[in-house]
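#struct-help
A.M.: can someone run this one for me? Single chain, 221 residues.
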Amino acid sequence: MVNIGNSWDEILKDEWRKDYYQSLRRFLADEYKNFTVYPDMDNIFNALVHTDYTRVKVVILGQDPYYNENQAHGLCFSVQKGVQLPPSLVNIYKELYSDLNIPIAKTGDLTSWADQGVLLLNTVLTVRAGLPNSHKGKGWEILTDTIITKLNARTAPVVFILWGANARSKKQLITNPQHLIIESAHPSPLSAFNGFFGSKPFSRANNFLSKYTTPVDWRLE
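D.P.: on it. Structure tokens below:
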């Protein structure tokens, strides 16, 4: 059984018993035993650990974890302290500066966002070292779709930020009209100039949140 340590445990308790998750668990046991897999097992569910269901204000969806050493730690787009900023995160910081005049941070660790209620959720939560999308289609998508669906059912408004085709494909799960969907191209250097730059997701999210709760402080060290 998975132990998140907050209200996600009750919300997701039935998932851990389902056949798809039991199959995924067996797959992961073999992968972690025979290969290098990111993030560390203790960090797989960090997004849920840091952002309790009842405190979610914003959801940012990623695809799967970074696949290079010392990068992934369970929060999408975030890297561990001291690690060089990946190109997509550099572009996120550029847009943050353009949008809210927040200086580009030296750290790539986005834990402070997560602790404020920004659920930094990858749609696939693990990856084999050096092989992007290597754990795609193994069952993680069923779990993360369930998480999105549970958040869609919330009465408190949530901002869903969908960057790129993978994240935007989840739009069909967000049917509650009280939530806000912000979507654009992915911040990757390959697509950022196709609509990510200039999309102002951070100010748009905060303008919406300010009607209901405390906005997010997007500043980083």
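A.M.: thanks! The CA atoms of residues 132 and 179 lie 31 Å apart.
D.P.: also worth noting: The first strand starts at residue 37 and ends at 38.
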